[in-house]
Amino acid sequence: MSLRNRVALAGGLVVAAALLLAALVLYPSADRDLHDQLDSTLVSTAASSPRFSQALKQKVSQSGDGFPATGVLDIGGTLVQFLPSPVQPGKAELADVTVQDTAVATGSRPAYFSDADYQGRAYRVYTSQFDSSSGSLVRVAKPLSDTLDALHRLELLLVGLVLGGALTAAFAARLLAGRLLRPVGRLTETVEQVTVTQDLTSRADGGLADIGGRDEIGRLARSFSAMMGALDGSVSAQRQLVADASHELRTPLTSITTNLELLAEPGGLADPQAPALVRAALEQSEELKRLVNDLVELARYGRAQVHTEEVRVDLLAQEVVDRAARRSPGLRFAVLPPPDPEDCVMLADPEALARALGNLVDNAAKWSPDGGAVELAVAFAPGRDRICCTVTDQGPGIDEADRPFVFDRFYRATAARARPGSGLGLSIVRQIAETHGGTVAVLPAERGARLRLELPLEAVHQGST
């Protein structure tokens, strides 16, 4: 069953239940009111029975039977029967006389209502004392058919109202559901199209941008469109990464394969160039290892969740610089802490932050001349809600044309292609910065290059735990 039909069925059932509940309350109330009205009419008629007695006496005297008579008198559809004193139990025309009737005639018991069959019809009978002195009874009866017919008509009306209301509500709910669920249908068509074509850009063709409004359906359409856009970007980046990685891996693998094939030739190991070929293969293997490690790190720091804890950035920066100084003894390294380093505490993944600072420092060391200086400055941004780690070197600097691309994966400037490296180090820095809600940028510098990593002290980490 479609969602539209389910909504229609639910709407009809809800209205039917509400009307049925109202009918269950209304019908007993109407039944009680009609019977009370009938009883009130009988009481009023019985109270006015002395008015009829004179007419009854005249009729009986004309017949010669004597007064009072026990016959039933039909007055305007109301049956009236007088039972003279003494009232004794026995047979009577309208209803048998009982002990209770005798007690009512003497005034020892109150008047009462009862039901009786007379000449094939059901009657409501009211039995009361005729007067307080004669010791006689008067019975007043009206047929129940009028009341029962009215109740039967009410039953049919209520049944028709419940069924008609339910059907009308179901029809209206189906029409309304069709209109309300039209955006959901368009969203479903887009999902099915993406499933069949595997084309994540088809969200625009599916018209999701036209599904406006601030309701839940509009929010769902916008969220789905944003999710599709993010997924499309992720898939495109994955494909680009695979293509770039394949291209970068091909060069060292080709070199290693070529050198090994030369060594595998007859007399290859005895060739005077064999040691050089082995060294070249080892160098290419090392470059391949670095490239694979960088790819692993890039994927690692791009994961959806990161571990965070409190980190003293100035102390972490000092550890990074100390390691770099041991690797490059020909350079001078320095850490410039803020005036109040004890306040330099932030929530971050310490391993990731150390990798980001290490890549910035290693990049500066790679481009610095012998005897040059590399500085890592830690400072607070204006407002003291962000912390800035700036690395400055004394190398040749970064060309203006290369600055927008230095943090792209596998991007290597023309001057850097002759140097070892995979082109992933600065890309890893940007990945770590974005994961922590920060940024990384190239700053203008009079000499060398200046790269700044800026992170919030209390960042809302993307997917952090």
Automatic annotation (TrEMBL):
Assigned keywords, A-Z: Kinase, Membrane, Phosphoprotein, Transferase, Transmembrane, Transmembrane helix, Two-component regulatory system
Record bears the keyword Transmembrane: yes
Record-listed E.C. numbers: 2.7.13.3
Substrates-to-products reaction catalysed: ATP + protein L-histidine = ADP + protein N-phospho-L-histidine
Localization per record: Cell membrane
Transmembrane segments: 7-27, 156-177
A molecular-function term among this protein's GO annotations: kinase activity
Family annotation (InterPro entries): HAMP_dom, HATPase_C_sf, HATPase_dom, His_kinase_dom, HisK_dim/P_dom, HisK_dim/P_sf, Sig_transdc_His_kin-like_C, TCS_sensor_his_kinase
Transmembrane in keyword set: yes
Main location: membrane
Residue span(s) of domain HAMP: 178-236
PANTHER family: SENSOR HISTIDINE KINASE TRCS, SENSOR HISTIDINE KINASE YKOH
Protein name according to UniProt: histidine kinase
